[in-house]
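Run: sequence + N-hydroxy-L-asparagine -> complex structure.
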Amino acid sequence: MSDKSRRDFIKLASVGAAGLAVNACAGTDESSTGKTPQKEAVTSKENELKELPIVVSTWKHGLKANEAAWEILSESGYALDAVEAGVRVSESDPMERSVGYGGRPDRDGHVTLDACIMNELYDCGSVAFLRDIKNPISVARKVMTDTPHVMLVGEGAKQFALDNGFVEEDLLVPDSEKEWKEWLKESEYKPVINIENHDTIGMLALDNKGRLSGACTTSGAAYKLHGRVGDSPIIGAGLYVDGEVGAACATGLGEAVIRSCGSHFVVQLLKQGYTPTEACQEAVEHIHKIHKNVEGLQVGFLALTIDGQVGGYSMYNGFNFAQYTNDGNVMIDCESKLRWED
Ligand code: SD4
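>> structure
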């Protein structure tokens, strides 16, 4: 699709979406910010076509992950390869306490990982509650390419990984084990989100050929109940890609993101002409509206359109993302609905 036809498509999509509910999953057709769900084609600066390629990813660890993705994108590689290679950097880093190897364990001391990946053709793969495998994103991609399924979980996912040459490793690093043992002394059951102002990595990329892909991977909420799965491996919740419109990913309290089909919600709004920031804000507003108590409920969304527009928004301040374009790799702070200090 040419750049012009892409832009035309967005405009057409916003016209063609008349009468569609904002989000079929959430079952609402009313905007929580009081806007009509139908928007005119966006004319704001944010809607200008950016030079391709572009990759964005959640939190500060996104900077390093973006570097690996950029190596592929800058050589005219495929966005899907870029997002896989990118998030593998965070997964493989033992210092990252929220993703892959070195991730915080559940309350019983087991590191269990969730991840999913999706391309511009609605091909997707996912693993959840996976143990002892360092790079769940690559297992998710194998599920996508080598099976007729979308999602494998637990022992089955691990067996599939081992059958496909992945190596079994202990993912609980000594420092993380020590922290967990400290936590056990009080054992306060309150899954901890966003402890160090960085967490799950969600990555979205648009390559030189205009192909969109996304990946999302996490060790989930620290000290969660054994068996708990969050939003990150769930297509439509932690990640969603519509190859003709845009892509979104989520971070934060997975239960709230699942309840609202968060990433799908955002992409449907992009389809109706919302800018990425507006769409992400609307998803946060919706989560705010459907929860009686949002104290400490952090969620953040990040979106990228087929035009290369980017935006994010979170419930509480502190959410940011890394963006790599031909202008370099930079951190961008997002607006939020609430402030921790309030
Ligand atoms: C989860 N969404 O498992 C993940 C955790 C996360 O920022 O993203 N925290 O609920």
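>> summary
Residues 193-194, 199-200, 218, 220-221, 230-232, 251-254 surround N-hydroxy-L-asparagine (CB under 6 Å). The chain has a mean pLDDT of 86.
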